Amino acid sequence: MNRTIDRLKLIFVGVFALACAGVLVYHVGWEWPRQKCEARGDWWDWRGRTCAHPVLISDITGRTIEEIQAEKAEAAAKAKAAQAPAAAPAAKP
User: How far apart are CA 50 and CA 27, in angstroms?
Assistant: First the structure.
């Protein structure tokens, strides 16, 4: 009976040690780098374990958000002017 208990004890201690090692590897390899990356405001890719800096579309195209909003406002004003009927002439008394 004692040999069985000793064997089971060693098996459980071994499984526990492997589980602890697995958790440590996960935290060192994936979790801690993810936390550092996201703390800087970057994007974390868990598949490749890479930290990427987001690139704004305005950085690529050279157009700022204000320019895009101004173009939209101008287009809306033109559309509104085209839809509005011409003012009717005032009736003469």
Answer: 15
